[in-house]
Amino acid sequence: MKIVIENTEFAYDLGCRLLKLKHETCPFKELESVWSKIKPLSFSGIARLENLEQRRVGIVCLGIDRLIKEVKPKLINSKTIKKTTTFVDKDGKLVENKFNDTYELFEVEGSYFSKGLKNHQQMENCYFVKCKDTSTNRVYLIWVDIKRVYETNGGQRWNVDVKDINAIQCIAWTIQTTVEKGNIEKILRQGDCILIKPKNASAKMLETPRHLTEKEYRTLLVAES
User: Fold this and answer.
1) DSSP labels for 95-147?
2) pTM of this structure
3) Residue 60 in contact with residue 69, Cβ under 8 Å?
4) d(C-alpha 94, C-alpha 104), whole Å
5) Alpha helices in 38-106, H assignment, sequence order
6) Beta bridge partners of 214
7) Tens digit of each residue's pLDDT (9 = 90 or more) over 65-106
8) Which residue among 25, 40, 70 closes a domain?
9) How many CA within 13 A on the CB side of residue 164?
10) Which of 106, 118, 108 is CA-nearest to residue 47?
């Protein structure tokens, strides 16, 4: 038997534990007899799910406030960018909007994910960047690989110190493109949809997508909504 949450299938027992995490009271009559016995899934259990979409749904069920309270992350870096963007209002007029956009980089101790694991199975510290959706003010947490973030911005990933990484580099790294460096004219963003206009539309695109650098994010992102 399967349980479907957010259009994603889970094994029955796992689905029950996620439902217990998401709902204060039993959402289905069929579960009322066992509801009090169900143990809600923890963040550490969610992090171990192999399926990426299942992990995403698990985070939704847990909620950001409980996630932060449970893992007790350490703030590593906070950066604020002053931005100006233009959008069309309900009357069809162009409106200029100035705002401060703050990004925060957090560290989660690897020991939190390694409970019960042997020494050689212990996980390294993990990192996520916290940001807001400019149109809805919803808060998002995005996991990042700081070694690759450092490499993307000119460093060597085998010789990285987290103190050398900032939150803007991390949020830029979450965006990928097949447009070569130096050939981006501008970047437009609407929620999760990223539009990148190349200077030379006929130029050959990269076979393997690359991550954006901090400099590209700061200088080429011209509009958000």
Assistant:
1) EEEEEEEEEEEEEE-GGGT-TT--GGGPPPPEEEEEEE-TTT--EEEEEE-HH
2) 0.75
3) no
4) 31
5) 43-47, 52-62, 64-71
6) none
7) 888 888 888 999 999 999 887 777 788 888 888 888 999 999
8) 70
9) 15
10) 108
